[in-house]
Amino acid sequence: MKKILLITLSMLFAFSAIAQAPAPAFIYPRPSQHAVLTQTVGVTDITVTYSRPGVKGRKIWGGLVPYGQVWRTGANEATTIAFSDDVTINGQPLPKGTYSLHTIPGRDSWTIIFNKTANQWGSFNYDAAQDALRVTVKPEKADFREWMSFDVPQLSTDSATVALRWENLAVPFTVSTGTTQKVLSEARAAVAAAKPDDWRTPYRAATFANDNRMPDDAMRWLDQSIKINENINNLYLKARMQARAGDRMGAIYTAERAISKATPQDAEEVAEIRKDIESWRASK
Predict the structure, then answer these.
(1) By the 8 A CB rule, do 116 and 130 touch?
(2) Which 3 state secondary structure label does DSSP give 45?
(3) CA distance 280 to 284
(4) DSSP for 237-275?
(5) What is d(CA 242, CA 258) in angstroms, rounded to the nearest whole number?
(6) Residues with Cβ < 8 Å from 90, sequence gap 6 or more?
(7) Share of the chain above pLDDT 70, in %
(8) What is the pLDDT of residue 284?
(9) Starting from the edge strand earliest in sequence, which strands make up the sheet with 97-104, in order?
(10) What pLDDT score was predicted for residue 176?
(11) Burial 114-150 (b: 16+ CB within 10 A, else e)
């Protein structure tokens, strides 16, 4: 009995010593370092949070990372991916939110898994019942990369290619945001609700439509802006649109009207307009 009591007391003293021990003087670095990729696509933010394992001379695919098994897609905690708006992944809808990103590597195809349980260690407690979406993608041969990473090799207003890169493979998938149609719908609503003396809202809507090659919407909103308040900004935009449409004489006339509306603070823009006028005259 005394022996048991002594052992129990020793364990209690040991636990007490551990509890009262000072914080470590330094923090050990993780072998696989933490990384974050943030990319805005149109108006939608994509954030990938992961840890970066290294090749370190090992066989990766079909070795360290087995084929046909769920993988955490990195090291340490499961990789997570967050979307600030609803998106589609390779054409399939996915609601906005934060997901753990698991994969099932294969020789010829991979399964990308977006799981609703975002915070988990690796894939050890992965539950397929919590999957929000699975898509099948094709891996591609790529230049050697020692440290695993996520890249965005292709980007536009409406979509981005996100690619997992490690060793000699790239595993891409496409995130689509529908930004142009979304913003266009919002612009129409904003112009319809604008106050009678608000020239800026239709001007901004026209700028967006022009940048995205929607000349009919752009010119309609621009004419509305000019009717409310003719100024250097909306006139210069109209001149550029006329030049793009091939009406250089009209563009020159409108650009000169824009200069006539200039204030002393518009000196830089006036110089830019004059350069455009010279260019349009030279190309007549």
Answers:
(1) yes
(2) strand
(3) 6
(4) HHHHHHHHTT-HHHHHHHHHHHHHT--GGGHHHHHHHHH
(5) 13
(6) 135, 137, 173, 174
(7) 90
(8) 64
(9) 33-41, 44-52, 80-83, 97-104, 110-115, 131-137
(10) 98
(11) bbeebebebbeebeeebbbbbbebebeebeebeebbb
Q: What is the pLDDT of residues 200-256, one digit of tens each?
A: 999 999 999 999 989 999 999 999 999 999 999 999 999 999 999 999 999 999 999
Indicate the length of the chain as a whole number.
Answer: 284
Q: Whole-angstrom Cα distance, residue 198 to residue 241?
A: 22
Instruction: For 185-204, write each residue's pLDDT tens digit.
Output: 999 999 999 999 999 999 99
Which residue in 133, 75, 142, 66 sits closest to 106, CA to CA? 66
| The amino acid at 62 | G
Are the C-beta atoms of 205 and 186 separated by less than 8 Å? no
C-alpha–C-alpha distance, residues 136 and 87, integer Å:
17
DSSP string computed for 167-202: EEEEEEEEEE--HHHHHHHHHHHHHHH--TT--HHH
CATH of domain 179-282: 1.25.40.10
Per residue in 117-166, pLDDT (tens digit) is 998 887 888 999 999 999 999 999 999 999 999 999 999 999 999 999 99
Strand ranges in 78-193 using DSSP code E only, listed in sequence order: 80-83, 87-89, 92-94, 97-104, 110-115, 131-137, 140-155, 159-176
Q: What are the residue ranges spanned by the domains of the chain? A: 33-176, 179-282
Phi, psi of 111 (to 5 degrees): -105, 125
Phi-psi region of 11 (alpha: psi -120 to 50; beta: other; left: phi over 0): alpha
